[in-house]
Amino acid sequence: MAPSRGPQVLARTLHQTLSNHRGPVHVVRYAKGSAKYVLSGGQDRTVRLWNPDLGTQIKTFEAHGYEVLSISVSHDNTKFASSGGDRSVFVWDVTAGVTTRRLAGHMSKVNAVELNADATVLASGSYDATVRLWDLRAPARAPIQVLDEARDAVQTLHVDTTTIITGSVDGYVRTYDLRKGELRSDFIGQPVTSVAPSSDGTTLLVSTIDSHVRLFDMSSGKLLNDFTGHNHTSYRCRACFGHEEATVIFGDEDGRVWAWDLVDAAVLQPNPPPKVHDKVITWTEHHPVDAGEMITASADGTVKVWRHPS
Amino acid sequence: MSTARLKRKLGDLGIDTSSRKANENFCLIGTPLPPLEKSKDTGEFVPLWKQEVRDEKGRRRLHGAFTGGFSAGYFNSVGSKEGWTPSTFVSSRSDRAKSRAARPEDFMDEEDLTERRDDLKLVDEHEQMDLLGGTQSEMSRRGDGADIEKDAITLTLEQSLLPAPKDSAGARILKKMGWRIGQGIGPRITWRQREMAFGRDPDTASDDVDEEAKKHMYAPRDKPLIIVERKDNFHGLGYDPGLGLHASLGVAPEASKQPTGPRLAGACSRGFGLGALNDADDDDVDVYDHTQTHGRNRHAYDASDIRDEEHVSMSSRTRDARSLGKSAQPQRPSAVQITFRDGKSPLAGFVISDKPVAEDMSFPIPEVPQGWTPNPTRVWEKEKAGSNDKENEAILPSQPQAHAQWKAGISADQRGAALGETPLPSAPRSIFDYISKKDQDRIKNVTSSRFAPASASDTPSPGPSTPLPPTMTRTEPHVAQAALRGFQPFTTDPAKQARYTAYLQAHAEPGSVAVPLAQKPGQTPEDLAKEMSDYAKAAALFRPISGAMAGRFTSASVLDLGPKIIEGLHTPAAQPEETESSMDVDEEKPKEEVKEEDPKVHAARLGTYGVMTREVCLWQPARLLCKRFGVKDPNPEVPVDTTGPSTSTAAPEATGSAPVDEVGGASAATMQVEGGSSGSGKRDLGNIGLGEEDGQGDDVLTYERPGMDIFKAIFASDDEESDEEQDRIDGADDVDESPAISVPEKPSESVTEVKPAPPANGVVEDVDLATFKPTFIPRMSKTKDTEKKDKKSKKQKGSKGGTLVSFDVDEDGGESLSLTAARHKHRDRDNERPKKKKRKEREGDKGEDMWVEKPPPDIVKVLSVNLPPDEGGGLHVGEHENGPSRTRKRAIDFM
């Protein structure tokens, strides 16, 4: 676990509002590397590429026939995967703006999609309670493996170098450890909407729809911290770590962005935070390198870029 | 044509025909020639082969074989380049009401339509001319069945009297020529002729006719058109639906006296409908029963025959035609009776009818007794009383039976009932009747436990029965139970149903004491007994499909169970009990569920996540997945897929597969021991700290170089290898130790850790070498074990012999790789030295007899004795023994 460096001020000054989406925005992700760009996907069936610094839209990726629920950018930013209501996962070429692969196999909408570290494997979690692992190297279109342990819709996924972590509505966080060849199922008790392991892979941030964000020890499954105060009862919202994993950030259903100190679980000021979105915040993501930037996507149709006042 | 020629000429002369000069017009009078440039002279002569035929729209209709091609079909008939365009699908879902059957017009192109239009005109004219309604439309207008019943006279009258709906052209012409409706066509005839034509004797009938009538000429008698009726029904030939048994009975006595004709007809008709499909029982029943008894010999066109007979006067031609058609059939029978009774022979081509002239059936009016007054009430009473008889009467032949009805037939039971037979004692039986009591009970237990809860839901709560003495156990308990669950037959009569249920409940529990049903007030014991037997029968009948079969069916609908019956009336004690028990059941279930989920949910609720909420199970990632993630396969003992095997993964495989294959029937116990030890080792590894890693790393290094045997064990077929070796050994010292032969050379490699292993089973958990040993033990006697060890080393050497050169190279590579720790390396060297020695020796052996080499094992043994001390304790060795754990350790280490 990263050492706490005392309460950090969350970037709360609105820098840009990206509002080209019509209808709710379901997901917004930073690009990899220095993360100069942002990809957002929404109910309007498009994936849009933005420059969050200037607030301009660079490109629109249109191929989905249904809402876009999840995006994952590859390590080299050359391609990304998106999924949504149309039961298949699209792998896009960023520059060409066309899909290079359409991975069909899920029985219902695909809630989460994640590429592995070198974009050779794609994991997709679906409402059909399965996670399918697709090989992006070989031309074969059948999944490498189907993880069907979940008893209910898979809402969130995380893939790192050796593990695949899934969060499901059945209240379980399942950690598939490839090296050990074992599956660790942690019963949380409430539908899980997001999982976010810390970068060292020892702790796991899990948000559930009982208005709790919990921090677990991944090796033992023990509860390390419990972050509360926010309102999270029915939507897929996302908890993430702040900069240097000193804080925990959560955009809740009231449109407020909550921040807690990781260690003492105290809500950072202001408490309660101001309402910055009209509707539920569907995605919260902190900039991977820049300490003072954060993006939120909301059902009110906007993506907001937050920065420190400079 | 002239312009063309002119143009050509001018062209030959080199004059531009389009120039103004050439087109200058000098004509002052008359019609000038058309200007040269637009010489579209339609009247111009074109040679035949240049002429084109075009239709009214200017389309070319005729194409030569070489000029038409595709466009011929395209332009002429198809109408589009793509060929016939199928009409696109239009959903009729929204306007289903509007949808109608496809008409022929929908499939016609314009030509067809015009043709059809013309046709329609013609058809109209035809219809006008259709005087007697021969067309289909006329037929349908007349209605189907109505006319059949009409007798011939009314029909003819109708036909002749009713005016044609509209005069056709022919009719109009005829009318102009003096014809009137109802008259015949032809020259006028005298009164006398007319009388004769009508079949009357002109001389006799003269008195009531006035003289004036004879002076006139009359139109000839109208002749009815011969209308061949369509056969729209499915009756057999000669079947007259209007003629039932009733009609036939009237003539029956006469018919029976007619031996030849009718009999034959009967035989003929018997031929109909008596095929293989008919029941054998029905053999004695004739399909066309009435024809047997009926006096008339009827055949195909009987009905029209009758009609014709009424037309007393017929033109000779038609009659000829008729009789010709008719004579064909009865030819044979008539051969006997050639002459009339009075000796006259019939006309040529005629036969004498063998049936009497049909008599009208007329019955004398019953004589009304004196002083009789109508009293309808009496009749009604009689009807009421004899309603049962009525039913029987319904079967009487006086009612003509519809064909379908007849076909359905009467069952054997019905016939038996009609004949007054005693019904066979075949009560509906269930399979339970054939099962022994014991089996019945067992099945009952099974079914009740499995199916009762499901089926109980749609029955009115059978519940436990009242404890009462089993006085009348005519119903088996299981039958009663089943019947309780099954169809409730008396739902219409709640009281009876209640009694029935009570009866069933009384019999449902075999051991319990059941109260017999109390007599109803005013019920005699006999009635009660009868009621009981009724209930018993009903219970036997109405029970659900029992046992295993029930699981295969689902009822399509919930049975109507009628009014809810409160059993409490009869068994007041049972009521509260029942509810309690059901309540208990209801409450217990959720409780149990809660209990089941309890630890986890409870822990989650309390936030005590950890051991309670975590489940760890094995998961096998796909090999490709591991490859893509750059992770070693965690469970490499999954066989065969060692395409890129690290040596360490291969080693456990050898332990796993080779011995098992060779030994074949190795005792399961030892196998399990192996498996168990490896499993526990795994767990140990998970908990082991890094401190113990040195030894393991060592171990790994030693495993870096697997013997060729292992590769052979993996890649070569085991049989060959073992056979070879076996041969060798057998040749050497006729000891049958075939299983031991195949042991990979691993023991010699891992010699470093090998303590001098105890020869017996105890070895199992101690040493690497030992892990191989136990698999052979079951077959060997203990005495052989020591011997075996020696031989084993021999064998190893033998197997290694051939591949030594390549192996050396490998070894070097392996060494260079394994330079992690100086100490290890050193030890490795130590390890290798003996091996090399061995190898040398083996090389030596190769040339010589293989069996001279006793010493090497000694060396090995010495080494093995020497080395263990610096290897550490038994725990360490224990860890070594399991391959897979080693693998994982390595993977982790090098990540």
TrEMBL record, chain A:
<keyword id="KW-0963">Cytoplasm</keyword>
<comment type="similarity">
    <text>Belongs to the WD repeat MORG1 family.</text>
</comment>
<protein>
    <submittedName>
        <fullName>WD40 repeat-like protein</fullName>
    </submittedName>
</protein>
<feature type="repeat" description="WD">
    <location>
        <begin position="61"/>
        <end position="102"/>
    </location>
</feature>
<feature type="repeat" description="WD">
    <location>
        <begin position="18"/>
        <end position="60"/>
    </location>
</feature>
<feature type="repeat" description="WD">
    <location>
        <begin position="103"/>
        <end position="137"/>
    </location>
</feature>
<dbReference type="InterPro" id="IPR051980">
    <property type="entry name" value="WD_repeat_MORG1"/>
</dbReference>
<keyword id="KW-0677">Repeat</keyword>
<dbReference type="InterPro" id="IPR018391">
    <property type="entry name" value="PQQ_b-propeller_rpt"/>
</dbReference>
<dbReference type="InterPro" id="IPR015943">
    <property type="entry name" value="WD40/YVTN_repeat-like_dom_sf"/>
</dbReference>
<dbReference type="InterPro" id="IPR019775">
    <property type="entry name" value="WD40_repeat_CS"/>
</dbReference>
<dbReference type="InterPro" id="IPR001680">
    <property type="entry name" value="WD40_rpt"/>
</dbReference>
<dbReference type="GO" id="GO:0000398">
    <property type="term" value="P:mRNA splicing, via spliceosome"/>
</dbReference>
<dbReference type="GO" id="GO:0071013">
    <property type="term" value="C:catalytic step 2 spliceosome"/>
</dbReference>
<dbReference type="GO" id="GO:0005737">
    <property type="term" value="C:cytoplasm"/>
</dbReference>
<keyword id="KW-0853">WD repeat</keyword>
<feature type="repeat" description="WD">
    <location>
        <begin position="294"/>
        <end position="310"/>
    </location>
</feature>
<dbReference type="InterPro" id="IPR036322">
    <property type="entry name" value="WD40_repeat_dom_sf"/>
</dbReference>
<dbReference type="Pfam" id="PF00400">
    <property type="entry name" value="WD40"/>
</dbReference>
<dbReference type="InterPro" id="IPR020472">
    <property type="entry name" value="WD40_PAC1"/>
</dbReference>
TrEMBL record, chain B:
<feature type="compositionally biased region" description="Basic and acidic residues">
    <location>
        <begin position="588"/>
        <end position="599"/>
    </location>
</feature>
<feature type="region of interest" description="Disordered">
    <location>
        <begin position="365"/>
        <end position="394"/>
    </location>
</feature>
<dbReference type="Pfam" id="PF26093">
    <property type="entry name" value="HTH_TGH"/>
</dbReference>
<dbReference type="GO" id="GO:0003723">
    <property type="term" value="F:RNA binding"/>
</dbReference>
<feature type="region of interest" description="Disordered">
    <location>
        <begin position="570"/>
        <end position="599"/>
    </location>
</feature>
<feature type="domain" description="G-patch">
    <location>
        <begin position="166"/>
        <end position="186"/>
    </location>
</feature>
<feature type="compositionally biased region" description="Basic and acidic residues">
    <location>
        <begin position="841"/>
        <end position="856"/>
    </location>
</feature>
<dbReference type="Pfam" id="PF07713">
    <property type="entry name" value="DUF1604"/>
</dbReference>
<feature type="region of interest" description="Disordered">
    <location>
        <begin position="717"/>
        <end position="895"/>
    </location>
</feature>
<feature type="region of interest" description="Disordered">
    <location>
        <begin position="631"/>
        <end position="702"/>
    </location>
</feature>
<dbReference type="InterPro" id="IPR000467">
    <property type="entry name" value="G_patch_dom"/>
</dbReference>
<feature type="compositionally biased region" description="Pro residues">
    <location>
        <begin position="461"/>
        <end position="470"/>
    </location>
</feature>
<feature type="region of interest" description="Disordered">
    <location>
        <begin position="92"/>
        <end position="112"/>
    </location>
</feature>
<dbReference type="GO" id="GO:0006397">
    <property type="term" value="P:mRNA processing"/>
</dbReference>
<feature type="compositionally biased region" description="Basic and acidic residues">
    <location>
        <begin position="379"/>
        <end position="393"/>
    </location>
</feature>
<protein>
    <recommendedName>
        <fullName>G-patch domain-containing protein</fullName>
    </recommendedName>
</protein>
<feature type="compositionally biased region" description="Acidic residues">
    <location>
        <begin position="577"/>
        <end position="587"/>
    </location>
</feature>
<feature type="compositionally biased region" description="Basic and acidic residues">
    <location>
        <begin position="93"/>
        <end position="106"/>
    </location>
</feature>
<feature type="compositionally biased region" description="Acidic residues">
    <location>
        <begin position="717"/>
        <end position="737"/>
    </location>
</feature>
<dbReference type="InterPro" id="IPR011666">
    <property type="entry name" value="DUF1604"/>
</dbReference>
<feature type="region of interest" description="Disordered">
    <location>
        <begin position="448"/>
        <end position="471"/>
    </location>
</feature>
<dbReference type="GO" id="GO:0005634">
    <property type="term" value="C:nucleus"/>
</dbReference>
